[in-house]
Design a protein that fits this description.
Layout lengths: L1 E4 L2 E4 L3 E2 L4 E2 L4 E2 L4 E2 L4 E2 L4 E4 L13 E4 L4 E2 L4 E3 L8 E4 L4 E2 L4 E2 L4 E2 L4 E2 L4 E2 L4 E2 L4 E2 L4 E2 L22 E2 L12 E2 L8 E2 L16
Parallel strand pairs: 2-5, 3-6, 4-7, 5-8, 6-9, 7-10, 8-11, 9-12, 10-13, 11-14, 12-15, 13-16, 14-17, 15-18, 16-19, 17-20, 19-21
Antiparallel strand pairs: 1-2, 22-23
Length: about 200
């Protein structure tokens, strides 16, 4: 079931484009499709089962990654669920730094940068050109808040920045500040970013 070369594991059925590089101790599962020149660094796992309690392992669950994407150490990109169509998608030329996480059924655009330990919850959409600062989390659906009205989810806007210890998303997505600062949930308009030391907007 596995092809093992220098401790790399690429499951039978995975599709790799031209000039892909899968480094030692990285894993690419059977339902994954990688574009040309994708680089997967040590201990990254592409296409692992969704972290979803109702997931049936008999279900096909895959990840599709565009050309020129770099996946650094300990990054995890989970396959999709039945509810989300069974596919998690990442565009071209993305750069995912160490320990970042793309959950089930996410749709991430092209030319994005995720700094260290960025985490997307399931079903999040991030548009092209978005940069998210380190130790940030973006989740969907929006969590309940007695002070904020419920707003429908949209997506991370093109070219939007994300401050460290926070998260950026556009329109009606929710922002969760880092737990280290015990920040409240904030709803940020497009093209604004959270300040690292206060609730002011830059």
């Amino acid at each position: 079931e596995f092809r093992r070369v220098l401790f790399r594991s690429v499951e039978s059925g995975a599709r790799l484009g031209a000039d892909c590089e899968i480094m030692a101790h990285a894993i690419v599962t059977r339902h994954c499709t990688l574009g040309d020149r994708v680089v997967v660094h040590p201990f990254a796992v592409v296409g692992g089962d969704p972290q979803y309690v109702k997931f049936d392992r008999a279900t096909a669950s895959g990840v599709r990654i565009g050309s020129g994407t770099v996946i650094r150490e300990h990054v995890t990109m989970n396959g999709g669920s039945v509810k989300g169509g069974g596919l998690t998608e990442v565009g071209d030329r993305g750069y995912f730094m160490a320990n970042s996480h793309v959950a089930h059924d996410c749709h991430v655009g092209s030319s994005v940068t995720f700094a260290n330990s960025v985490a997307l919850g399931g079903h999040v959409t991030i548009s092209d050109g978005v940069n998210i600062g380190g130790v940030s989390a973006v989740q969907f659906p929006s969590p309940p808040s007695p002070r904020l009205p419920h707003l429908p989810f949209d997506r991370g806007g093109r070219g939007s920045p994300g401050g460290g210890m926070g998260a950026r998303n556009r329109g009606s997505a929710w922002i969760r500040r880092g737990h280290a600062h015990r920040r409240d949930l904030r709803h940020l308009p497009a093209l604004l970013r959270p300040d690292r030391k206060s609730t002011r907007l830059n």
